[in-house]
User: Fold these one by one.
Assistant:
Number 1:
Amino acid sequence: MEISFRGKKVFVTGAGQGIGRGIAEQLWRTGAKVVAVSRTRSHLETLQNEYPSIDIVELDVGDWDKTREVIESLGHFDALVNNAGIGLCQPFLECTPEAFDTTMNINLKSIINVSQVVAKKMIENKTQGAIVNVSSQASKAALKDHTIYSASKAGLDAVTRAMALELGPYGIRVNAVNPTVIMTAMGRIGWADPDKANTMLSKIPLGRFGEVSEVVDAVLYLLSDKASMINGVELPIDGGFLAT
């Protein structure tokens, strides 16, 4: 199955590294005009060095007003990937209001903000676009020390469903992907401890963690016309974790 985004303009947040970078790169390979967003300039510069035609935007999506101003200035998009996120892990009894506010601001509030601006432009231009929100298996299952993170991702799943309901009549599809642990550069470091890794791996029927490409492929499919009747879905990419 061949997927092409030739002639499409796609906005990707959290595109400086990891899953977001993988999505931006593969969208570029399939012909998209990619606008890659990150708050870390050095990550964006290395991305543009490899792919000079990718437009880069240094932006902290946690800043509501600045984010709206920047996205408004970039014009119309055919698709959006909300990948920017933060994970602050604390035991339930030690959760702080600062961690709650910071996490919800990035993982939930910023996605509503970005999506509002992009979706309004889609509607104005009568574009039957697609939006994919990067959620987590943590929205569906309890994970130790993930109280606030899990709540933010469960909220994101709810927002995804609401967006699908309200934007669907305009021909705009909205879906989420819910990955397990993914072997990004940070993931390989964070899960290098065999005891920690084996506890999680024992709950995954396929017996391994995911690769970045496996999330990228799912996201591109959901963005593409091949998924034209898929709307409001939360797709686990977890090797069966949620089936157990």
Number 2:
Amino acid sequence: MDGGDRILVAAGLTAAVVVGAFVLWGPGGAPKVRKRRGQIAGLQNLGRTCFLNTLLQAFAACPTFIEWLKKYAKANGHNSMITTLYTVIEVVNGTHESARGTPVCPLGVLQALRAAGWVVPADQQDAHELLHVLLSCIEEETTAMSKKPGCLSDALGLGGGRAWSALASPASPPSAPLSMRGDGVSRPARPASAAPPGEPELIDPEDAPSPVKLSKGVSRSFCHLSSVGRRWAAAPARPAPVPPTRGTLASRTHCTVCSTKSPIRYDKFDSVSLSMANASTGLTGTYSLSGLLRAFTAPELVNGLRCSKCCPEESSPAPHHTQTKHIRTVSFGKLPAVLVLQVARVEWRGGGPSKRVEHVAFPETLCMAPYAAQRAAQPEPPALPLRGAAPSAAAGDARAAYRLAAVVVHVGGPRSGHFATYRRGNGFESKRWWYTSDTLVHEVSLQEVLRCAAYLLFYERTQAPPPPLTTHF
């Protein structure tokens, strides 16, 4: 091989190396981020915003909550909490078209909070309190959706581009403290309709225009459309949808003297706080989630209540001795699709807050049937031909079965610290667990998850199996 051939071979090898380096590292000289659908991404900390990041990771592990957000998200929902949450969660889960596996900036969620009138702090805050703030914003949006009229483009699902404010660049967080909204706060402009495609909006009867009298010579088709429009405007507004975390608690009291029972009272909840103060440790000497739930639903003796039978209102004003003791019972009247349980770890001791660090054992699968309100017994329906039995008690327990989706933990003292999340993967990786702490994401085992000191537990209701069928010949 002469000198010219050697030069050609060297030039060819050099070109091959250059092309390969360009393919692997690109024009910027840095390795390309490998995009994989379903890859979980971290969240950037904008200055002590770990309490926000941990909630976003927990919600991203709940498919039921994601589907609910998707149903009511709008393509042109600028500063909409529902749309912003859905977009950020899509990017975190790697299911968004712009997902690249890099840490996501949650600035859009903070902007949506400010647009709704909330003031976000610059110091450490509680993730449980922020949970109720986010759900309150969502409820306000759904309430506004049910009251505002829609148009044809909304009913057909026509709109602009996506709400890219959820993917805005990082910025320093505001410095004002977190507080409830006061009067005079400006309200953001909301979309005209936030109903999902295929569900047309209805006009509020109070805002409905008065029917217009048609003059002679108007075509019949126009008369028909006008009558349809009047019926559409006169229809009542549909009720506001509730988030999948919404459930009800059923409570009642009965007198210890005459055994008179009060009517059942139903109270809404989005999360339930469980205390270790009245819970027993059992034979193992450790607390358990079932023990905390038993203590929460245990009968409680209440003094100073007035019985409607022992102390009728006709005898008022009644002396003090006419007040009797009552037993108060609490149970879950309606179980939510996503059950959020808080293990209350901060207590007031010695004139100041103190944090409890005891481990509370919790299962991967949870049955809430023992803590739910008992339904009234119904007569057994007659046997159907070819398809037999009625749903059994096991089917009722299956409807109260939950699977662990995410666990929020707190490291630190009662006034400061850091939040992190253990969460399931999404899609076909739902059996794998991940530890997420801001931008850090790595896989962990289920045993490590069950050993952590849980602060917030996110359980998702499993699909109830169909009732067993028997065939009669």
Number 3:
Amino acid sequence: MYSLKVFVIAAIIIGATARSVPKERLGSYVLVEEDGDMLVYALAEDSEATTEEVHPQRVRRQAHGSLSSNPDGSSNFAAKIPIARGDSNVLSAIGSVNGANGKGGFGSAGGGLAWDNIKGHGATLTASRIPGVADQLTAAGKANLFHNDHHDITANAFATRTFPDKPNFPTFDTYGGKVGYTFNDKIGASLGAAHTDLFKKTDYSAMGNLNLFKDRTSSLDLNAGWSKSVSPYLPSSRWEPSGGLSFTRFF
């Protein structure tokens, strides 16, 4: 079981700033390219009104990445580079290195492909390596269930197959999902679960987040919640608190 904690993150944005802002009408969406990104406005038509309500979403159209620091002094890096683009979809190459110690060692590393759709849907297929432990293959997807100016609901699901290095240890699968809600891009909450058949183990999580500050160059967020694991092989099962502050710098 691996736990994910959020620490200071510096996001690296690579690409030129667009000098023009072309607009394109695509069905019930308007596409506006701005600063190398594609802003997507979903048009909600009202038969009794003469105006249209627009709900923006953003699809990355340029290479970008993130760099974070861990308490033990190691670092995490992730990158995403678009390789094919259409009016409503972007296919990107993705890669990550976690727990790099600066001496050639790392906790895990992987890469794969990611697909993003202007309606907020997406999918990834990645392969990763945990040195001395196992190889992993993961398929994940997300679906935007609802979005307007104030509310957003997105569902995520994943399935991971783990191939342990030890020849006498069997291959095993972990699968799970999460549903998240966000209000005004400021307050959010999520419920998630993951199950591993081999260990008869199910992990549950209930998390919340609050954006304390955000502008074009940085963001400060508070994350908090509870998680627990249930298995006949565990002596006890109880909800454990987790959380912390995350600071993101964009440049």
Number 4:
Amino acid sequence: MAITTFPTVDKCASIGREKDTVVADMDGTLLRGRSSFPYFALVAFEVGGVLRLLFLLLASPLAGLLYYFVSESAGIQVLIFAAFAGMKISDIESVARAVLPKFYSEDLHPESWKVFSSCGKRYVLTANPRVMVETFLKDFLGTDRVLGTEIGTYKGRATGFVQNPGVLVGKNKADALKKAFGETKPEIGLGDRHTDFPFLTLCKEGYIVAPKPEVKAVTTSKLPKPIIFHDGRLVQKPTPIMSLLIILWIPVGFILACLRIAAGSLLPMPIVYYAFWALGVRVIIKGNPPPPVKKSGVLFICSHRTLLDPIFLSTALGRPIPAVTYSVSRLSEIISPIKTVRLNRDRVLDASMIKKLLQEGDLAICPEGTTCREPFLLRFSALFAELTDELVPVAMVNKMSMFHGTTARGWKGMDPFYFFMNPSPAYEVTFLNKLPYELTCNSGKSSHEVANYIQRVIAATLSYECTTFTRKDKYRALAGNDGTVVEKPVIKKRIMG
């Protein structure tokens, strides 16, 4: 069957389709990219680490040979086995929920999305594992049903094999469509390759999405639901070449990260700035850093980027600034060059301790969810507002080329290492004007008003849009918990004489 049998998608009318049903393929159709390797690589790295990514990369040549010279089904089965075998299904679902939507949304094809979004009923028929794509398609594209490859499981783990009828390509796609629709024919079918023809012939209108590498992706602002929360360690989509670079760089990057962490932890704070620059870490300072206040300390309220926020604040000021944190891992606390006051949700805030710290000098707080609508953060902001009027907002921006320095799902003790493993990471610290007295609690403003004003000022500086989402919202969406680092009970061992 020739590809000219079906017209191209740009010939499909998108007006007046509100009552129509569309069935679309995914790779090469809804998405610009025709390869699903980067998304398998994301799952492999986020769940299994660099060794699983290496295994997938080594298996990819075999997958390619089978895909192009034997059958699409065999090639995709190799990718599924290499990426998923032995993984907990819950871990795959977690990555599908927290990591993949951002990367999928950045590759949406404008012509097929125009048709797909105009229809009242939306179905996706894909060779990709359903568990990997369903969250994005339903939550962010408004898809009514996803028909994808079902992976085999055993005791909650993926076997690496697929369930009957196998990978959904060619005839299997057509059979899945018949099973879903019966004798009814959907109005529109969208595909991009000859193996999509069997299901396209079952639609009233069939259209082909021609390869156009130069076409620009749909902007995320046009999605039915914006992607606000994102997790994951990788900054860029892991294509085969990028995956190879990541694997080769990690041993070098880890050694470099250890050197950078040692420099920040062991050297006097006034020279850490220069040591970081010598080791490839750029620290950019904007605004006017306030000098130490003699009577009582300055409270720096920073936008949260990573656990390293107070470290780079101290680096920019040239003096160590103690930090009050919501929760932090024990490892991060040990290697920190500054004093950290770790206040978990279950602990009572000690006003006298905070007051003592402010009397001794400056203090930093980097809350997640600076609207402070959570009960804990409300008490947090109210307490500080009552203790000092020396409030200085600080806008933090970090720049990374390979790894994100924060995670909601993984072990937060590795956050500093991942940040410093970037070839040339950067932190931009912008000191804003100190809050005037008339905008503090002592002038009659409520803690809500003060906290939200600070949020608006920081957001305007960073060109961010303020939301009412809190730290709990983020962690529940990405990790299924409230983000508290659980402390292990200390067991006292009796020494026998």
